[in-house]
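Thread: flavin-adenine dinucleotide complex, take 2
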Amino acid sequence: MYDIIIAGGGPAGSIAAERATKNGLSVLVLEKEAYPRDKACGGGVSQKALEVIGGIDKGLVEREIFGARIFLHDYQNFTGRLGSRVAITTMRRDLDHWLVNRAEDSGALVHDEDPVKDVTFSKDCVEVVTPKNRYRSRMIVGSDGVNSTVARKSGIRTRWGSDIGLCLETEVELGDTLVEESVGTDITEFYFRGMWGYGWVFPKKDRLSIGIGELISQVHKPKDQFMRFVRDISLQKKIDLEDRITRINSHLLPLGGFGRRIHGERVILAGDAAGFVDPFIGEGLYYAVKSGEIAADVAVLAVEKNDFSRNFLAGYATKCEDAFVSDLKSAMRFARFAYGDLDRFLRILRSDRRLFHEYLRTVRGDRTYAGFNRWCALRSPVTFLKLVSG
Ligand SMILES: Cc1cc2nc3c(=O)[nH]c(=O)nc-3n(C[C@H](O)[C@H](O)[C@H](O)COP(=O)(O)OP(=O)(O)OC[C@H]3O[C@@H](n4cnc5c(N)ncnc54)[C@H](O)[C@@H]3O)c2cc1C
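Output below.
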């Protein structure tokens, strides 16, 4: 019997596995896909996420990002930039493979192509069924992404509500010169279109990640919407991007900032499975690795005390609340404010360079959303008061 089974070897699962093994637990990671596997993602990794990961192999860094360019409806645009790195871009296929190798090197057992199909809970253990085998453990971490089997089988969540987004993404190979000419080397582009969500163009070494993400309730013919976006970008950049598309990936994205249940008897959820995503920009990697880290620490304590009760594992929810969930609620207040009247918000952002600067610092991890909201309210009480008052 393992101390913990980790369902899903994405960033949340790999960080949890590495940390739990380093702290003496026996860990089995069950991953549905074969590594290296793709994951629909812009591949932007914020500085605060990199700090939790504890540094990154240089070869994984596609571009170092210092700022953002915001495009309005009419393609007028403005740029904000920090003196320090806000994020990097990477290829998720490589990053996730590297992270799971790190977990394996620290002693975790990793089975890929071994998807969790069923989970049953008894008084003494958790039994996990895959097409290949049955495994037993003292507890389970569900880090199996937005469509989490563990969340369903444990009864924590049967389905998402309307608090979820849909993203479509593609990687277009252009060669590094064209990437640099069309976007630049150190800037990510965001295209706001008056909806809850946005389009993005992120530079990688020799390709662009192009995508759109929006609330599922707004989605209508998503592929058509995506292709319209690609055609608009092609016109704006004077490059035929449409012809270079080989594959379009789509994936759901849960929005964070809600008080959701994330634990039960012998089970905790981490990363997307728990719904930990920034509701304004859709950043999920920081919350995935941070919750993976906390999941490992709580699992170590549970094993030490031999206590896997729902009551004891409530400590996981409390630690997540303190570390970032309460801040995701502040991010949600900010998102409601900004998307509630996007034109007004973008006007303010455009005219107030300091505001843009402070927002980039928030993404970088220099300040929290709560601090950012308070800063906004102090700077312009009339405009921003309802942000802090919620
Ligand atoms: C299009 C798009 C663009 C995005 N861009 C960014 C970005 O630029 N920056 C950012 O920070 N965030 C971004 N996000 C969010 C980010 O991708 C996620 O928040 C992040 O991947 C969550 O990590 P995770 O480990 O929780 O889940 P995942 O990365 O989804 O990993 C879950 C793992 O579980 C496996 N799995 C699923 N079911 C089972 C099962 N039954 N048994 C075993 N294994 C299973 C999957 O194969 C997968 O490997 C984006 C999301 C989308 C959809």
